[in-house]
Amino acid sequence: MTPTPADLDAIWLTLRLAGTVTVLLLLLGTPLAWWLAHSRARWRGVVNALVALPLILPPTVLGFYLLVALGPDGPLGQLTRSIGLGALPFTFAGLVVGSLIYSLPFVVQPIRDAFIAIGPRPLEVAATLGARPLDAFFSVVLPLARPGFLTATVLGFAHTVGEFGVVLMIGGNIPGETRVVAIQIYDHVEALEYAQAHWLAGGLLLFSFAVLLALHTLNDRQARR
Amino acid sequence: MSRDDALHFSVAIDLPQLRVEAEAALPARGVTALFGPSGSGKTTVLRLLAGLETHGRGRIALGESVWQDDANGIRLPTHRRPIGYVFQEASLFAHLTVRDNLAFALKRARTTEHPVGFDDAVAWLAIDHLLDRRPERLSGGERQRVAIARALLAQPRLLLMDEPLSAVDADGRDAILDTLEQLPERLGIPIVYVSHSIEEVSRLADHLVLMSAGRVLASGPLNTVFTRCDLPLAHGAHAGAVLQARVAEHRDTEHLSCLRFDGGQLLVSTVGRPVGAAVRVRITARDVAIALSAPTDSSVVNHLRAVISAISDDPNPGHCLVTLQVGAAVLLARITVHSCHRLALAPGMAVWALVKGVAVR
């Protein structure tokens, strides 16, 4: 039994989606995590709760609201149309937006916790040694927070790979555009192609296990150094 | 080129538990100790000088350069103040080796007229054998030695040290103190040293800023502040005087060394320093007795001619504190009120100070 071209398309699309989302989340999530770790603003609690919301919210609920918001008449939809991006639902870009929100806590929380664990002292030390704040961030905070970033990268990527409900709601099932592996498996099962479904499902299972194993091994090694 | 690098500061900050409001002018050379009980605001003042307390207000100037003057909207951020800062606990970067920790400072150093070289700092702090280790493989004393070397490599014009020896065991402490004693001469910059250990202060400091409840109680030369009867220091259990002396001769057969100071000489157990070397002696008030004539039949070796300059009450019941002028030096003697009356002691009287114990550093 070999994968069909449609299966390979779905795998490639999933990897592209997860890669894009992970990179974007690391870029956007790091400043957010920094703010959450250091701010004393009163509404920090609100932001923390919002960031954590995708952890417990049913993906279909999230997907539904995203569909409404991103739709042609939704507030975000009007925005994307006015800047010439068109409507995002049922496009790859729409999937990216949905996944950004869906996987946000998996990236932001480990980084935030790493920043909190580092504490203010290394930054103070760096400042007394003449390091400007940005210099201190890149030369001290980033290396010290490496385990947190590693966890964030792996969880963000893996979680996006495994996404189903949100995709179904705002992405639909367009081959090469929004049909990711999880949807493809669903399609196979619907069509009673269990062998094909096994092939993909087993692959995802192995992938997830391997990723987590690698993560723990790497973090253990880091801790022992 | 000589430059007046005296440090003037007048700073204030409201902390949840304490309001700190401190003002002092410190000499351009040598070690100034910020001394006082825990919670008196010593560390906060040090952090204000470094610019680490963002809510601090006031004015800070080192010589001609103004680091902070909130009235005129001047405020250098920490990374632009030419300081070295040694934190109380180990503060080495855990992700870098000792060598890279030192290189971190050197790379970002402010240039000075008397730069401290990498090899100098490594040699002074004796950390040559640690260079390729990571901080977690170092003992408490080793970490602080590296932290001090790193602070020096930042090429500071002001060195700030916050109880650097509090996390170091007794052996390590002694070795580091030996090194610190030599720093003022090597660096030629002012050093501000926070401590609540009278030991460390009397060994290192030339100038003392006494703090209590967030305020400066007194600021002046070490022995002047130590022996002022209107300050709590003179009344503590460890009250005493610190004298600057020189090794005059070694009497090897008697295992004694003779030290000379501005008010006479002292015989002490052999000092491991060459003739001519400067040493500090600390004489606690309870180790000084008073006699009206030179005792010839006493086992006490050291007798010094003195004039009583003041007699004050002491919190210890039945005791009083006698301030003695010994040449240019000042000693304290804690004696019983009983003896004071029996000998009819009064200010202006010429007496003999019998020194029972001398701690040499």
TrEMBL record, chain A:
Membrane topology (UniProt) = Multi-pass membrane protein
The record's listing under CDD domains reads:
TM_PBP2
| InterPro entries noted in UniProt | MetI-like (IPR000515), MetI-like_sf (IPR035906), ModB_ABC (IPR011867)
Compartmental location = Cell inner membrane; Cell membrane
**What is one cellular component GO term in this UniProt entry?**
plasma membrane
Q: Name one Pfam family in it.
A: BPD_transp_1
Keywords for this entry?
A: Cell inner membrane, Cell membrane, Membrane, Molybdenum, Transmembrane, Transmembrane helix, Transport
Q: Which GO terms describe its molecular function?
A: molybdate ion transmembrane transporter activity
Q: Where in the numbering of this chain does the ABC transmembrane type-1 domain appear?
A: 11-217
List all membrane-crossing ranges.
Answer: 12-37, 49-71, 83-102, 197-218
Q: Determine if Transit peptide is one of this entry's keywords.
A: no
Q: Which domain of life is it from?
A: Bacteria
Q: Which family does it belong to?
A: Belongs to the binding-protein-dependent transport system permease family. CysTW subfamily.
Q: What does this protein do?
A: Part of the binding-protein-dependent transport system for molybdenum; probably responsible for the translocation of the substrate across the membrane.
| Protein known as | Molybdenum transport system permease
Q: Which organism is it from?
A: Denitromonas iodatirespirans
What gene makes this protein? Answer: modB
UniProtKB/TrEMBL annotation, chain B:
Quote the cellular component terms of the Gene Ontology held in the record. membrane
**What is the top-level taxon of the source organism?**
Bacteria
Give the Gene Ontology MF terms in alphabetical order: ABC-type transporter activity; ATP binding; ATP hydrolysis activity; molybdate ion transmembrane transporter activity
UniProt domain ABC transporter: residue ranges: 2-238
Q: What is this protein called?
A: Molybdenum ABC transporter ATP-binding protein
PANTHER family per UniProt: ABC TRANSPORTER I FAMILY MEMBER 10, MOLYBDENUM IMPORT ATP-BINDING PROTEIN MODC 2
Q: Which UniProt keywords apply?
A: ATP-binding, Cell inner membrane, Cell membrane, Membrane, Molybdenum, Nucleotide-binding, Translocase, Transport
Gene3D superfamilies to which the protein is assigned, alphabetical: 2.40.50.100, P-loop containing nucleotide triphosphate hydrolases
Sequence intervals crossing the membrane = none
Query: Mop domain location, by residue?
Result: 297-361
Q: Which Pfam families match?
A: ABC_tran, TOBE
